[in-house]
Recover the amino acids of this structure.
């Protein structure tokens, strides 16, 4: 019970904190549509996705329609409307990476983190695995990024070592 109360408090504090930061952005940049992207970035950074209630808050704060905010949120690949894992693994499947074996790497990652039923995020919220188009590092193909950090010339064996290293740090989804 105590743990539940503490978790609810943490969630409420987090919500208050992000609302404060969003208000600060409106104060700093003004109630303009150009403030929309910084606000969405702030939310994405805090939650790793854009919760619906916060999108509504942004629309109200900037006097924009929810449809406009939603349209921008879905246009840019950097934003997600679904919760993502603590580690976002992006496997480049551009031409250079594809011909140098990106798909076996992708399959090895999915197997290693135990992704099931075609889902992109693991049940424990640790990993999200996606494919992306060229990330601009073709010379190092096949390329994988983990939370933006680039790993080049990745093989299915290498991915085991990389992911084991992440896990050995003892990280958890709530960290
Ligand atoms: S095709 Fe993968 S980095 Fe360019």
């Amino acid at each position: 019970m105590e743990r539940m109360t503490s978790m609810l408090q943490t969630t409420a504090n987090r919500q208050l904190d992000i609302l404060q930061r969003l208000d600060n952005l409106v104060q700093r940049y003004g109630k303009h549509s150009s403030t929309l992207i910084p606000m969405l970035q702030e939310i994405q950074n805090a939650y790793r996705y854009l919760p619906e209630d916060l999108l509504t808050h942004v629309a109200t704060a900037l006097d924009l329609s929810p449809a406009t905010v939603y349209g921008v949120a879905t246009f840019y690949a950097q934003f997600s409307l679904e919760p993502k894992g603590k580690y976002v693994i992006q496997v480049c499947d551009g031409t250079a990476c594809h011909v140098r074996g990106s798909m076996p790497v992708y399959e090895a990652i999915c197997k290693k983190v135990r992704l099931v039923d075609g889902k992109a995020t693991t049940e424990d919220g640790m990993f999200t695995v996606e494919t992306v188009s060229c990330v601009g590092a073709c010379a190092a193909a096949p390329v994988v990024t983990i939370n933006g950090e680039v790993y080049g010339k990745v093989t299915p064996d290498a991915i085991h070592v990389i992911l084991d290293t992440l896990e050995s740090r003892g990280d958890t989804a709530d960290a």
